[in-house]
Amino acid sequence: MMRLIYSGAQVFDGVTLHKDAVLVIEDGATAAILPTSDAPSGKVVALDGGVLTPGFVDLQANGGGGVMFNDETSVDGLRVIAAAHAATGTRAFLPTLITDTPNRTRAAIDAVVAAIADGVPGIAGLHLEGPHLAVAQKGAHDADLIRPMTDRDVAVLEDAAHRLPLLKVTVAPESTRPAQIARLARAGVLISLGHSDCSYDTALVAFAAGARCVTHLFNAMSPLRHRAPGLVGAALDSCGISAGIIADGVHVHPAAIRAAVAAKRGSDRLFLVTDAMASLASELQEFRLGGRRILRGEGRLTLEDGTLAGADLTMPQAIQVLTQEVGVPLAQALSMATTIPARLLSGFSATASGFRAPFIYLAENGDVSSPEETAGMVDPSS
Question: Where is the Amidohydrolase-related domain positioned along the sequence (predicted)?
Fold first, then answer.
């Protein structure tokens, strides 16, 4: 039996951040998290600070490695995107198709099914962000492709839900009837509200019908006002509703993130997403989305008119924003990148219960590596 003892870093088990602890790996599988004083014999991998944590979970990944999923709805495209996200510490993600045509939507479903069958690592399902959104809150989505949901759309999504481990669909109540939301929820679809100008009361109707999530909280939605709480107010006021948030300091001000964290703390439902585009893990300075130029600069991605178009963000960067600018404790920030989103995935756990989640090493400077990559640090005297 090959036993490796990882020491010198804090260890996060998905819930608790252990200090003065070791991570024990036996024959490539996580075996235990123990106090340093109880470490068994084995080859010691000495780490210089940082934290060992389950790999990140990202429920909104539009692209990576120079590839946009909308442009490369294929197994090969997904393989490039998956590798790019793995390089930044993400071990489970939902490829996300931004509002597109019915044919492209069906191609995306087929591509994800095929990629999972081919064993492309990390793909946990599919996120369809649109096209059933509100034009008034379209953001970077193509207004010409946004449309109301039809019965035919419902049937396609029901079939996809049966073929995929998880299907997440972002919709606006303006383009989706409560009965459609209820039908899709019964089929196992994770319905998320987003790109919507809906009122607080309308959002509650959608939640009652079966919507369980909100897409990139604060962005592209009716804001929180003292007499009209909107979708933001409904999301923060509803304990059973999960919400993703883009913590890059650009999409949402740190003070607003702090307020959201405080509002959702009791329900443990706020999680991180990257909303990453083709630029993730690449040197791209510009690329295209549906024929439109996306420009990269100053930590943001925009259309030529300045509209934000996805995010220039990795999970380690989001964690850094949470801990350094928002003031979130490291354990909570890590939970928002692992355990909380993992609860929404079928058959995946980012907790250390049973040690099913693969661990990564997050160094003090934000660099990410796998335990296998750090094994070169083995203490030869051990």
Answer: 51-346
